Amino acid sequence: MSDQMQFIVEKLNQEPFRKNYNLITFDSLESMQLLQLLSDVLGEIDPKHAVDIREELPEQTAKRMLTFLGILKYKPPGSISDLSAFRQGLVTGSKPVIHPVLHWLLQRTNELKKRAYLARFLVRLEVPAEFLQDDTVADIYRQYEALMEAFKNLHKECEQIKTSGLSTAEIRRDISAMEEEKDQLVKRVERLKKKVETVQNHQRMLEITRQLRLEKEREESLAQQKQEQKNQLFHAEQRLQRAQLQFKEMQRAVVDAKPESLMKKLEEEMNFNSYLVTEKIPRELESKKNSVYFLQKVVAEPAMSQSDLSVLEVKINEVNTEINQLIEKRMMKYEPVDSKFSIYRQQASIISRKKEAKAEELQAAKEEMSRAERQMLQKTSQAHELEGSDVLKGDEFKHYVNKLRSKNTFYKKKRLEIAEITAEYGILQRTEELLKQCHEALQQQLQAIEDKKGISGYSYTQEELERVSAVKSEMDEMKGRTLDNMSEMVKKLNAVVAEKKASLAPVIKELRQLRQRCQELTQECDEKRIQYDSCAAGLESNRSVLEQEVKGLLEECVQEESNYRYINCMKRSLEIQLQRAKEEMKAYISPDPQEKRRAMREQYTRMILEQENLGKKLREKQKVVRESHGPNMKQIKMWQDLEQLMECKRECFQKQQNQTPIGQVIQEGGKDRLVL
Fold it and tell me: Where is coiled-coil annotated (predicted)?
């Protein structure tokens, strides 16, 4: 505890607080001063909380501090049951509560400043679910969430840039270095221009080199286009392989198929899809909507403690037991043991569950099959990328294995050669180290001799002069080669241009003839196209008429089919009603009293008698209430008057007590009075 107080005092005495506390003065602070100090520390983290607590109510202060500590994710010491004590201590300014909060805040001020800054933009506004039903409010809330996600991404990018190690000083140094390199390159270009100006026909040579550069760039772009077209061709081949595979599968499915089997298969798929659309998916969608609705209700409610949760669990258990009891009572009352409908209901529920399970299994099998097909296509494409051909089978695979074995033996031989070369390399490396040591020893001896003769540095200077002369000769030779290469390149280009002109002359002559032929063919193509368009328009009109007729017949067929199904359904319902009427008549005329009791007429008769008896009792009760209404109201009025009378007596007694003079002493059981 003393270490904690010492740390708090040290932090408060530093910037930006500068409180000049010691342990005694800090420990003697009152509750209001402690709360103000805590508010100042919170105001340093977030300027919005830099307020004077004397200007706001204690409840507002406690609520503000608790909310902000929750945003900063402060966890008070102790268990969950101590939260109420923590809130009470924060309201009253208790030292055991305020000191740990101050210690926690002052330990991580910078981190909490960042968290408070982010909380201004990332703490979600709680909008009730019923307000979100409005389209305008829902759109604005979605925009709000999108902006929040954008802020998160921008903040992450900013933090990455800050932690990437790139500082402004390094960027400035890089910019200055690049500017120096730019100046050097400009000077170098100017020097080269001056040197080139002395050469004859330098403008033409520059123009030719420019054209050469443009041609090289064009060649690079063409190579890039070629690569892109290769990629497109590869993707197109993959699509073609997938289409061929699907076509083969369809061919295999249609080889031994008949129209009846195909229709049966289509009907099965249609029934399965209709089951998914009409029963399974709507039920799942409804359950998802219910779960989302309940979750939204839970989110909209305020935060609950563990005690609230335990109370809710107890209530849920009680409601579940009550529901089970009601279900048992209902089953005992309306569903006898020997009822046949219970068996049918059980069978129907079992069949529906089996149907749902099989539908889920079928859906999972279809997904697994599609996943396997995608994996097979992926593996096939990978095999094409690696080998450039299909998967090997039979003799081709054996030949491929033999080829791999020969390559393996060749690999082992080369590996032995590499091992020998590696050993020889180690020997040569050791020899190089020994020669370097000998060279260093000779250099030291030569240095000692030069020092003795008084010409130290002579060998180094001589080596530098030789190196500089060698570099100069290389530069001169390079310049000469460059000029020779440029002149040779110009000659070659001129020769190539002349050769191309000579070779293109007959081609140009043929091209003129072909252009004339192309014009004739284009004119003929236009005439044929006009004829084709007129014929296609007539056929299209006939096709549209036929399509309308077919569409009308199909609609008529669908209408007749729906009428047929509707009549069948009505027939079944009438048969069921007729069967019920027969069973009711049979039960009614049966001599067996048990059978008669099961008849609907007897049941409704009993219910009518029960309701008539209940109505008779209620009318009698109403009559009694009407008769006793007047006396009861009089009695209520008398009690109210008595209450007013007693209230009046109480007020009179209080006034008499207040009017009694101060200093009178009333003695019980005597007649004397003493008045001061």
Answer: 168-253, 309-382, 504-563
Kindly report, residue by residue over 7-49, the tens digit of the pLDDT: 888 888 887 777 887 877 877 888 888 888 888 888 888 888 7
What's the average model confidence in pLDDT over 324-334?
70
pTM: 0.29
In angstroms, the Cα distances linking 182 to 176, 186, 644 are 10, 6, 106
Among 101, 40, 91, smallest CA distance to 70 is for: 101
Which runs of consecutive H residues, i.e. helices, occur in 164-201? 168-197
CA angle 115, 116, 120 (to 5 degrees): 115
Packing angle of the helix pair 58-71, 83-92 (nearest 10 deg)? 130
End-to-end CA distance of the chain: 62
Question: Which residues fall within 8 angstroms of residue 138, CB to CB, at 6 or more apart?
Answer: 132
SS3 content of the chain, % helix, strand, coil (to 5): 85, 0, 15
CA atoms within 13 A on the CB side of 562: 6
Contact residues for 21 (Cβ-Cβ < 8 A; gap 6+): 9, 12, 13
Crossing angle, helix 395-453 and helix 458-589, to 10 degrees?
Answer: 150
Task: Evaluate whether 363 touches 284 at the Cβ level (below 8 Å).
Answer: no
CA atoms of 625 and 634, how far apart (whole Å): 14
In the block, tokens 């902000």 appear at 68
Which residue, chain included where needed, has tokens 């979750």? Answer: 295
- pLDDT, tens digit, 9 for 90 and up, residues 359-404: 778 878 878 887 887 787 777 777 666 655 555 555 666 777 788 8
